[in-house]
User: Fold this.
Amino acid sequence: MPEEIPIALELAKKQREIGVAEFFARNRHLLGFDNKRKALMTTIKEAVDNSLDACEDGNILPEINVEVIDMQNDRFKVIVEDNGPGIVKKQIPHIFARLLYGSKFFKLSQSRGQQGIGISASVLYSQLTTGKPTKIISRISKKHDAHYYELKIDTQKNKPDIIKEEITQWKNDHGTKIELELEGSYLGGSQSIDQYLKQTAIVNPHSTIIYTNPKAEQLIFARATDKLPHKPIEIKPHPYGVELGILITMLKATEARTLQSFLMNEFSRVGAGTAKEICENAALLPNTKPKAINREMAEKLLQGITKTKIISPPTNCISPIGEELLEKGLRKEINAEFYCATTRPPAVYRGNPFVIEAGIAYGGEQNAEDSVRLLRYANRVPLLYQQGACAITKSAVSTVWRNYGLSQSSGALPVGPATIVISINSVWVPFTSESKEAIAHYPEIIKEIKLALQECGRKLSIFIHKKKRIQIEGAKRDYLETYIPHVAEALKDLVGYKQADEEKIKKLLREILEKKRGKLEKIEIENPDYDEDLAKIGKETEEKEKQKTLE
Amino acid sequence: MKNKVLEGIKEKATNVYKKILKKKAPELDLPLRSLSNVKYDEKQGYFEILGKKKERTLTVGTIKTFAQTLRMMDLSKKLIETDDIASKREAYYISKNWKEAMFKQQPDSDAVMDDVEAMLMVNREQLGFIPEEKGGEVAGQLIVIDRDPETKKELKIDCTKFGSGAYSIPISVEHLKFETNAKFILAIETAGMFQRLVKHKYWKEANCILVSMGGVPTRACRRFIRILADAKKIPVYVFTDGDPYGYFNIYRTLKVGSGNAAHINKYFCVPQAKFLGVTPQDIEDYKLPTHPLKDVDIKRAKDAVKNDPFVQHHKEWQRAIKKLVEMKVRAEQQALAKWGLNYVIEKYLPNKLKDSKTWLP
Assistant:
């Protein structure tokens, strides 16, 4: 009988730590790299989002150059260059070649990126599909050198693998340029790069985006305002938003010596009184040392927080797009008869402040038989994928549009010639996955979106009813006009006048009718902001695509 | 007379024309033809039209009928000028030339015709329009003196000599004269009951004139009974089914006219008529077989109590209708056959005629 080796020993040999980079390499769909088309799109999106964030952090009006070059055989080279503040030399490899490394995860203020995954995931994807390193140039000022790097990610260790590093000549005083090659496919349509850049330009009018597409056509989205958006202020977390794990980590990391000062220093909206009250509700002494608090105590502390009434977090950390800009964006893109937009007052979900904005463009050249078009934004970034899974869509679907003059079957978006835009702005936008395509279904968020939509809906219904009234009046006049010749003709025989008089009587009757019913109002498209060339972007290719599939 | 009607039409049309020239919205004011626009005075004897008007002008609700009314006036003008006539149905078909202003169905054209009648306070024959309906039938102790349409010679028509048939009341009755010794006129709702009475020569036995109204009496029938009763000073008794339709649509229309034709009730009424039966009391007294009142019967009864100035004037009718509604039944004339086919002749009518207390006003 052979000696038995416990199977667990064999199994144990196979077990080892999984690198975070390795994990994402296998689960690329979690980061938005499900297919070739989306991979190309996501890469550009991450790079542009980073550039915009960086420029705004540095108080610089963004000027971003995006270039996509077709390398044949489903390979594309993506170059994104900005005039941002640049990155200090030693940070460059970590930012681009290390997953979950970033500045935005730890601070609570409104920005496009938040986890520190996006761009390094693109680097990883590039490396996986082409084996080539990503090339970076960055410079922080005229006085400093521009640094050139060729980077890969060590997927097992999640550490940068520096292939090449040198000082280089660069035409720009400051900024960052990233160049990577990856497997992808380039298509037009509503989920295209063109569409994404256009929508980005619309809600970021302080930026100039120059885009060269794979057909070597250049599209320039020129800056429309020199005013930077109000800079979001960084805030500390609000006690209501904290989870046990994070609380324990914070307790370990804090420099505060007592529980009371920990609460006061690390959280927003906690003063001495509130801190004492939390301690009391948690049955913990305010002078307990934070490091001495164990798991059970932390749990009690969390319960204490829930029991205590704490005022909402400050909301000046949010920088919404604004009603005016939202409406102007719609006007540029759509030739409609009616526009409206609204910005809700700030609200809070799980301790995170957020602001919902909504706008509607109705009528005009839009198709009346299809579902309305829904444009979604999160922190000024257009969301193009996973519409169905998004809280925004859910809110739009569960709003009763029939009250506002749009037809709607249950569980569906309303039908009508309308475009609805909804934007969520928050220090922490709760996405359903790392690829940041859909908003999670928080009841507070859904409630706010619905309130914003109802506000717009009420304005819309006034317009729709007015339009209907005018249509009905028009139909009534047509009906009345039908009988004018009969009155004139009968009178001709009854009174005995001539043919010429009959025409005169008809004319007089029409005048009397006009006087009696007042002037007929007209609804026309009056939209000087409309930019036909801009509106075509993304659409044109969409139609061509449809034709192609038909052929 | 003809000229007067023509003048009336022209005057109304000219008013419309002048208003248009002054750039004012033209309108036609037409008397409202309904029970809400009549009053009843027993001494006067009929529903008299009051002053309520409806206006037709350049509004969505009225422009079509405004045009149609003018068209109808124009048609009437042409008929009078050419000394021609058109039946109500023919007038309806003529409107088919009016494109958008045509009538979709004859009741619509009839209503506009009645409106023109009411506006000018004339009857439709004066406008050149004639009805299609039969005027009713007569049998019994009466000689009608008519004229031969060709020779204009007097024609004596003996209403006792129609055997099992009857004399048919013409559409126009104004020129008729009568010879009779009859003691009363009996106006009957149904042709079936009329036939029974004719077959058994009830008129001879009772020395009376029988008139079959065949439902709601036509204008000619009402006018015929009226001139006959006036000329010969004989009473008129009415015999209908025991239901709200018989009481109000038939009897009341015969006696005092209708809301719909309020403008001409003065001529087309028989104020001296009395209601013989079948009364609600008869249903009990004669133990008549009944049917349950239909919803429309109940509605008609309630409407009468609420809106009919004639019923509102006569307490007896209010009591009768209340009784009927409480009994929840109706009885037909022919229900008397339960007691034998000739019970109506041998018992019911003689009994009723003897006892005026069993009548209704």
In short: Residues 443-496 of chain A form the longest helix (54 residues). The mean pLDDT of chain A is 86.
